[in-house]
Amino acid sequence: MQERAKQIVVDYFNSHMDKTDGKQIGLEDVYVVWFCKTLQNWKALLSTNVRDGVYYEITHNGDKNETYVDVYKKWENYAVRED
């Protein structure tokens, strides 16, 4: 399951990366941040070692045998102080 999720990220990245950058990644460049499996369903949050601020949410629906891919870009991270 986790290897399948990693392969989905590799395939997505390599097919969407600007060809002029000449960058391709492999399974070794993808890591699982979080993974959970419940019955026939699973979800994984993944990222790559590419410093682009993108992370991937892969969700598998076992009832329909479908896997959904959400790609997110981190725009900002800041703290809000609670007084």
Describe how the helices and strands are arranged.
Layout: H1 2-16, E1 30-38, E2 41-48, E3 54-61, E4 66-73
Antiparallel strand pairs: 1-2, 2-3, 3-4
Provide key terms for this protein.
4-stranded antiparallel β-sheet; 1 helix; 83 residues; alpha+beta
Describe the structure concisely for a colleague:
The chain has 83 residues and is an alpha+beta fold.
Provide structural commentary:
There is one protein chain. By secondary structure, the protein is of the alpha+beta class. Helix content is 18%, strand content 40%. The chain is built from one helix and four strands. The protein has one helix at 2-16; strands spanning 30-38, 41-48, 54-61, 66-73. The protein has a four-stranded antiparallel beta sheet. Strand 3 and strand 4 (66-73) form a beta hairpin. The radius of gyration is 15 Å and the shape is flat. The N and C termini lie far apart (44 Å). The mean pLDDT is 93.
Main β sheet profile: 4 strands, antiparallel
| Percent range for β-strand residues | 35-45%
* Morphology: flat
Tell me the distance between the termini. Answer: 44 Å
Number of DSSP strand runs: 4
Mean pLDDT: 93
